[in-house]
Amino acid sequence: MSVPTLQALRDVGVANGLVAVGVTDAGPLVEARAAIEERRRVGLHGGMQFTYRNPARSTEPARILDGARSLVVGAHPYAGGPVDHGGTDGPRLRGRVARYATDDHYGALRAALSEMAGVLERAGWRARVVADDNALVDRAAAQRAGVGWFGRNANILVPGHGSWVVLGAVVTDAELGTSEAVPDGCGSCRRCLDGCPTGAIVAPGVVDARRCLAWLVQADGPFPEEHRVALGDRIYGCDDCQEVCPPSRRSPEGRAEVASSGAWVDLLEMLESSDEHLLDTHGRWYIPRRDPRYLRRNALVALGNVAEPGHAEVAAVLERYAAGDDELLAEHARWARGRVQERASA
User: Exactly one of 11, 25, 132, 133 is catalytic; which is it?
Assistant: First the structure.
């Protein structure tokens, strides 16, 4: 059987929207496993499962495909530039959505990876697509495949594109070699560390999930009270460490305007919608146990941060939730009500 060249695979990937493609062997990601296990040991995972659940599995690509020899790693871009999030200047109050979640960017990534997998399969090799999957630490694979370097914010930075990308891989039993590594491009810059609203980046490349807003909106249980004000108008995700990153800001993606239709949600509508509507509308997001009450929890915190005193509909919604039977939501509603009242007396 012939082995497709990296250039042939890259040509197919780029034709389907990828901005970077690299290859590496399918050997264990030893450094990544050690880092995950150490961070889990000291509690930095904050209850996150994903690749923390089974580090041995997520750092051994050969477990994904018997006889795996290589990984083909790809990066698909998404717009990270300016967007009208709605704010509080209209009749409705809006919550901000992180740019990676404004559309099905992983769907586009999987489609591109599938095209490259097809090249391998037509040549007689086996191939499996892995994206947004706890079976593989995609950032470690991307670094080893020469797709980019680990930024100080723990994201992979792709030369010319920054971190406005989603990552995935094709695992194959074809032997493809290894792409040249990308050297570190952060230098002495620490804008992401200083720009994190909760100080979650505790060292270059090390994030404490217990403080990271992007994780806390996905975690179960109460939203930590000490970080509720910092959440601001966010409803899902946080882009701050990418927004201040020079390589990301200079990239085409960092200047590309984001379609506003998916960049914000109506907070009051979210609090008034049925479970079915919330899951139909936001089902692509990670929601603990697929329980819509966590979307409402986040919406209550955001509403408390953005609503102006004297807004009758807000007051009615918060009162209804504060008096409700669900203590998790009632507590967050009481907090939001108090937050609005603080502004009234300021």
Answer: 132
